[in-house]
Records
---
Amino acid sequence: MRLEELPTPCYIVDEELLEKNLKILNGVRERTGCKIILAQKAFSMFKLYPLIGQYLNGATASGLYEARLGYEEMGKENHVFSPAYREDEIDEIVEICDHIIFNSFSQVEKFKDKVLKAGKKVGVRINPECSTQVGHAIYDPCAPGSRFGVKQEHFRPDLLEGISGLHFHTLCQQNADDLETTLNAVEEKFGPWLSEMEWINFGGGHHITREDYDIPLLEKCIKRMQDKYGLEVYLEPGEAVALNAGFLVTTVLDTLENGMEIAILDTSATCHMPDVLEMPYRPPLQESGEAGEKPFTYRLGGQTCLAGDIIGDYSFDQPLKSGDRLVFEDMAIYSMVKNTTFNGMALPAIVVKDKSGDYEVVHEFGYQDFKMRLA
């Protein structure tokens, strides 16, 4: 299929751009000997897991269903972390996961023996109390009152028997300088126990495939833990795997005027690109400019009843009209994994653009996908 033949709205993941990211990540693996696994919470398009599995060591999950997806579709190393595990799910989690990471020592006491009996690895998430976020407290696991990780004051050396690794995850879309700062805090607070471990997991949030990312500093951080403590190092990026590798194609349904020009699209910020409202951020849009930069400025909004279902203000060389197609960029991550059918909005189709430039519609959604979630 050609781009203009695709149904809208639709997510497109470009296989060539995805592989470009994977090659960068694989380079880090090859130069350092670290292991890199896909954080499925950011990107779970399992159609492309065979390609991802050619370059990465496996996947990590935030609960049972993601763990099952990684187990069934990736078939390599399978890790999981949850703030707390359910009694009715832990047996299956232990069966299908290799590393089970606990958020507290009470959870360790409750489930450790079961994990060790199955021959799997036990880890503990730590909180180094080192906030490197600027202006995004919602994404800061080290914020006061955080429910993530064991602080130094609650660490239990007496319960370390059988625990083979430590995990921390404090970054969000950040560079390696913040990782270096965090490692300093990890060593300061948990250094006495690092040499007792077999592995350490740096978590996610590393924007490794971004153009300005300091890969040499990242590799220096990895080597530091390997050489000083003899640790196997894991990273679990999500965004970096599919950063700038996806698009959302939408059609203009109508235009109107209310103190400014407005265009109604067949997509929705709240339903199809929720990070636009949650982060918040302004997604790149092909062939557009900032408000006022080009002759014709429009506020782009969705079909839902939410007054704030606004994607942003963009300018264009020509007036928009019904039927025009717009292409938003960087729409592979935190989009299809977070979308909703609020107001009965149809979910966007999922499309792969292969290396030859052809488009394949992998999945389309309909009324039953909306209805099946209700009762």
---
Amino acid sequence: MGGIAALAKSLGYKVTGSDRNVYPPMSTQLTQLGIELTEGYDLSQFTPEPDIVVIGNAMARGNPAVEYVLDRNLPYISGPQWLLEHLLKDRWVMAIAGTHGKTSTTSMLAWIMEDAGLAPGFLIGGVPENFGISARIGKSPFFVIEADEYDSAFFDKRSKFVHYRPRTLVLNNLEFDHADIFENLDAIKRQFHHCVRTVPSNGLVLAQAAEPNIESVLEMGCWSDKQYAGKAKKAEWQTNPVKSDCSVFDVLHHHKVVGQVSWSLIGEHNMHNALMAIAAAHHGGVTINDAIIALSTFKNVKRRMEIKGVVKGITVYDDFAHHPTAIQTTLNGLRNKIGNQKIIAVLEPRSNTMRMGVHKNELSQSWQLADEVHLLEPKQLAWSMDEIVENSEAPVSVYQTVDGIVDTLANSLNAGDHVLIMSNGGFDSIHAKLLTRLENS
């Protein structure tokens, strides 16, 4: 929604907005754009009366702002529908879908297109360091967008990406998530199928090979060209790591090495994301060599293994991981980079799916590469954390407050330790609190 607000501002609209909890980096970006923010849902923000209200999918009936809009019959629309009508309908949309890696892959593709001189528009659910902003209109037909499967609004339960009508569609992976809106995995597959249905026959669906859930989506019907990326033999696009941390890897096209990426990122997941971005850019006319050159200068997205500070030899990272698979791959990438140095994982299981306990059995297995784990127990948790503590091989401590975690870590960390903090929210500014304590200790 912050990115949509930025795009609307660029189109010349006067934009204001509200949210319950506005925090950086998005709050900073919006303020810099001159977009007025309201903390909470004060109804005075509707004076003067707006021409249209774009309602985010986190808003539900009972919200005072929503009720005000409905009671007064104000024009309203979902964010994805607004995007389609005002920006996407005449563009070559390049959409990145999947349970994991959407933000990173979208950022990589946008940077490849930019470095190739194509000046794409983009909308990304994060702030890519190469651009410093999460959205822009662009100066070419190309528009790169993070294609989220979450629902569009309380009045439109279709996935957001159904509105985007991509010409290039990347299907990175597919697992069960968003248990608050999807009954089961098949319900998510159906939405992915609906997105595939919108790709024109002269478009491209780029899918991860050897991914059974993606394959079953395509078996429901696909009317476009298909290409595969990954380890399976049928994949037109493949990679081969040259270094174990995947900071250097070969790119293969039709089983022939066509170039080598050497970049600042680590992890097998990022290597795969890069391959998808290269293949998608190739569909848009960028040569493989130019894409590889662009990735050598790619800077990761904020909150993706972002180093927040190094104090007294202790490195503190911020990462958006909140699903067991993402937690495991993030830890794997860090472990391959630092070897036997100590990793302290700090996790806030705050997503609706986590709170419901859907992934609780997988959670204790996801952090086994960490030397120790510190968990913040969310309020209104539908299950007990005691069971995952018992099932974990790595030592786990559970806390009721962020300050409790900071107190423990400040008194136990040593030079050479790596603190990996993972959450899809603000985590009560734990990174800044920890770094300050370390500096003052």
---
Amino acid sequence: MKRDTSPTAAFQPAAPRGIVEGLVYVFERVMPDPFVLSICLTFVVAVLALLIAPTGNVPTLLDSWYTGTFGILAFALQMILILATGYAIAEAPIVQRGLRALAAHAQTPARAALLVFPVVAIAAWLNWGLGLIVGALLSREIARRVHVDFAWLVAGSYSAWSICNSGLSSSIALSQASHGNALNLVEKATGHVVPLTETIFAPFVFIPTVLVVVVMTAIFIKMHPKSDNVVAFSDAGDTSDDASSADPHARSSDGPATFASRLEQSMLGTLLLLVLGVGYLAMEWRENKFDLDINTTILIFLLIGLALQRTPIAYANAIRRAARQTGSMLLQYPVYGGIMGIMKGTGLASMIAKAFVTIATPATLPVWSYLSSLIITLLVPSAGGHWAVQGPFVLPAAISLHASVPRTAMGVAMAENVSNMLQPFWAVPIVAIAGIRIQRVMGYTAVTFAVSLVIYAAALWLVH
């Protein structure tokens, strides 16, 4: 008899792993498309703002929604560029060969988890965009070779990626370390920047970061569905690896060479951009010492991608393929910008933050900052935008209470790691590249949410 490989096949209420399979079952049937979910969240936030926010009247709500919707566009482009430039690096031939070589070592589901978690976590720690891309592409390569549940594997990649807000591309940590950054709220309040040694390299951040990766690797190995319930990867109709089909505008290498084709295939254009980019970074870091912010991160990944892709046309084709994966983000960013605007403009976010701050002490403020961030992140799933909303309330409290400013700020960032496991906003690119429905993935990452929630809270409270 033919085995049922439909999404419902993984749900077996009587199985020992019934809790996890039950979560997958619920998410598949309850959770709508992420864009539809963002609209639902807009409705919920608007109703809450009108009912309980300090300035929750209709004119303020509408004005705040409009301001937020279009005020996020510059930041949205930055985030999409991080993803696109990360995609271009991960799609470079040398990186692809490396991913295939890595995938060859994953011969069982357990080995797949042992491979995916550290590789994706390291990539995500270096850059969140690179982590998303590496996770999706590595999952596909492994799933082509191993009889493994694909949703489980992609969920493992996304769970490993979750530590990104504790890494080098953490917008909260980077902005507080960047002199003159618009989101450097610490500098505006105290006149000082917070170096990365006090945030992402501090023990209370890197210890739980490593612990989440290790613990979730072990848990995911235990969570893999039984062989009869595995829904494997199918690449039928998949053309993502075919550059010509992915880019209908690409010129064929057959036929007579033209001036345009020679220019496209020449490395001179790449070398020009590399000289400009490397020259600027060398000058900037010599004059103002080494610094990383969102724009320099984008520039570095642009330069690396250009160097790996070698020719301008190869890089342009890679970015075109990346654009196919970022379309859903273009839809969702303005909607979440509107939510952010409503929460900030009507005072709803400040009300949530203040409710936790008023009961805090110097020792407990970072934990209360973390808990309030968990709620706000579900509605504002962008660390930079979230920080702009919550930072102005938790930082003055930290200063007045003489609490740890770095710990309070990173409490917000660490909660981003946790809430992203229930908020599908950042899962959209990885599932789009992997080619799988997001609902099955979120059923597994709900477990990551619960486990990492405890680990990060304990670290904020106990690790010094």
---
Amino acid sequence: MNTSPVNSAADRPHRMDPAGGCPHAANARLLARGAVTPVVLPGEVAGMAVLGHDALREFLAHPDVAKNAQHFAALQAGGIPDGWPLKTFATVQGMTTADGADHRRLRSLMSKAFTARRVEELRPRIEALTSSLLDGLDESAADGVADLRTHFALPLPMGVICELLGVDPGHHDRLHHLSNRIVATDIGPAEAMAANREMVEVLGAVVAARTEGPGDDLTSALIAAREENGDRLGPYELIGTLMLMIIAGHETTLNLITNAVRALCAHRDQLDLVRSGGATWADVVEETLRWDSPVSYFPFRYPTRDLTLDGTVIPKGTPVLAGYSAAGRDTKAHGPGAAHFDITRGSENRHLSLGHGAHYCMGAPLARTEATVALAQLFTRFPDLDLAVPESELPRHASFVGNSVQRLPVRLRR
């Protein structure tokens, strides 16, 4: 049993690459060493990552693991500068950084908007927006090639989440750009701080507009909850909640749709299986979530005591990354074929890509609905759709948080 995070040359901390890139080769090497590994975060900040499926499942639901940054030892000791690119993940006020009663309070304010019933009521709107975007994708094609990520995979979830929140369409492009900057891990302090300031300014304008003219949207409902009971939702929590909803509500589904299309183009036999009725679009979504998780390493959780996990001690107050992309290909959980894209796994597909425990992704029903509708309509409209460039030429995300490519040029027809 290990008694410290680092006890041999083989266990030297893995340096997280701020430039991101495809995580799977590095994940395989790290998993061969164990389910938990020490890492070095940008700025030489010491951390840990939980990679193995079973270890991650235990960690995500562990009663002695917190989300509030008051448990982040280095931050509380003054060792984390303001411009640290990952600081927003730790300090933003909202559900993802709250514990216990605070987390339940914030989650209860949002939960009614994301129930399976409410999402099913949104299905006609999602289907109509999908169809309209496919028209636009076709129109944007030059010589039959279009960027599916820019013209389809992005505006679908962004349009839906902004409509739910009552955000004017004029803000959509800017909010995506700022979200992309906030989840980036390769930017400098000045750019990181500027992106956060501007995001707060844009969302402040959204709140002001909805305060002056409330509507049938989630932001108006949150403002009403704040005004009805002053301690129900503080002003920083309101902005933080909107920031989290915008980022999580579109970035992950954007990556999910992008990664699913890439997977199907590379595995035409699996695409044929869906078309023949041997599997469903829901099966494609679940296998994509496992095989190429939209989120690779999500920051942060902190043990509230020294915690032994799979034989490795994670010291109290350590910032820990949840390694979703690694857990998805853990052969101990998914068998020797874990690295294979196989949509026939069915009930055996026990991935963790939408989380586990109290912080399980509230938007999971919405993300699944958006992705299944998007894929079904896309490949019905363009049955011969394929990548326009080799997979190896697709530029990767400049982040080890998000897991996808920056562009997805596709040829719509033969």
